[in-house]
Amino acid sequence: MAGALSAVDSSVRLQAALAAGSNPDPGFLERLVERCAVEPDFFVRDMLSWALTRLSPEITLPRIRRELGSERTQARSQALHTLSKIGDRSAWAWITRDMLRDADDEVARTAWRVAVVLVPEDEKRDLADELVLQLGRGDRTMRLSLSRALVDLGDVAEPALERAAADSDPVVAAHASATDLLRRNPETGFDAAVEEAMRVVVLGPERAVGGTAASGVAGTTEIADAAKTTEPAEPTGSTETAKAAKAVAETATC
Fold first, then answer.
1. What is the pLDDT of residues 9-20, one digit of tens each?
2. In whole angstroms, what is the distance from residue 29 CA to residue 52 CA?
């Protein structure tokens, strides 16, 4: 198993992770966790996390908690991802503000996602207040991830978004407004919501109603660039691995 999980061929590593999950054995725990921290292929990493969810949470969660403090960003990110898959709400206390504000974009994005999955009902408003502090951060992919997290929190995020929509930073204000539009009308689409928010921020609510385009107005370049960026590509992974992942997907999710 150890040799297969570190094989050169990513499809072999994928099949090894599938085998480990199909026949869960506590003896695989350490190797699976260690491989999560260094595995370069998205599909294999996801299968490794699935294999970990097949083990007893009593032995898996303490080991994953140790990874949250790792110096390796991928180890932290994948540990958070695995927590979201396990879904044990007792792990909520492990999601710190430092994780939600992590300098590494992938770690922060994953922390936002797992926080929304694990947060108790009575702490959702506080989480929304924390997440809005990241509005305007990063590229389109980052902003879309944050918007999704805030939308998933539901109506409790509304007060925090309304305050952020009045922020003096037009990038933050537009991102907050776009997120609130998505919250109220999920069918809008992120890019359309951003464009509408740009109009409101730059022209003001009354003039924006007239539909005046804001794409050429000074000061909106950064937001416009985010709105025009194409959809993020599928995670990088070899063709062979992608085919193998598709072939075993149904088995892995049973």
1. 999 999 999 999
2. 7
pLDDT at 195: 65
Distances (CA, A) of 175 to 164, 181, 183: 9, 10, 12
Choice between 151 and 218, residue whose per-residue pLDDT is larger: 151
Task: Give the global pTM.
Answer: 0.74
Structural domain containing residue 128: 122-219
Task: Reduce the DSSP state of residue 82 to 3 states and report it.
Answer: helix
- Judge whether 190 lies within some domain: yes
- Write the CA distances from 14 to 10, 26, 141, 151, 243, integer angstroms: 6, 19, 26, 33, 11
Coil, strand, or helix at residue 211?
A: coil
Give domain status of residue 206, yes or no: yes
Nearest alpha-carbon partner for 252 in 40, 39, 27, 52 = 52
Who wins on pLDDT, 244 or 84? 84
46 part of a folded domain = no
Q: How many domains does the chain have?
A: 1
Residue 215 included in any domain: yes
Q: Is 131 within 8 Å of 112 (Cβ atoms)? A: yes
